[in-house]
Input
Amino acid sequence: MTADPSADGLFQLNPNARAVLRPVAGWLPILFIDDVFANPARLRESALGLPFHEPPYPFHYPGKIAEPDSADPSLNLFLGNVLNLVNHEYLPRIPVIVERGRPITAFSRVETDFAIVDVHPNDVEPGQRVPHVDPVPIFGLVYLNPTERGGTLFFSATGRSAGKERAGYFVEADPEYAFIGKIEGRFNRLAVYPGFVPHSGEIAGDWITTDERFSEPRLTQRLTFFP
Output
């Protein structure tokens, strides 16, 4: 990634960050960039001060989202770097993705927001108790949690019935979904992955059932790629 020393903003890149393509479970291609931001603690603090709100789309995220300042030069530099990286280093090295009958050879834009998870496991909706797929073929996350808040879990559908009603967040395999592998939610890690593979956030631990889900929430920066 190209770090611009003059872009001393919230999204300033770590000049030593390097992209690595590494498969999960031997076949699921994930692009990792560890230590992606120069000052992730400052970015987290600033992001948590944004006006978070309920997601406006049909799939209800179990928490709230907020949009960064789109005029921030360091944000635009970051997004341009990531878009270039995905187009030139990720897409050519993974199986061809076909959308609406046409192969995707490049993405034209990337949008971003921040998301926090703050819904108690007893209050999640039925659709939030199963793995999901994203509305775009490629998705990215930056994990911005200095305290352990879990990563992302991947599953494959078995074609069988779950056999019982689910409760809480989906963090373990059952008869309907077999566990494939996971992305460790390392602090300041960017991970880009195929959004069409069933997955779920690794929402587990005492923090999600206590006030810690508000005082020290699970924060991610989300990246959505569009052809």
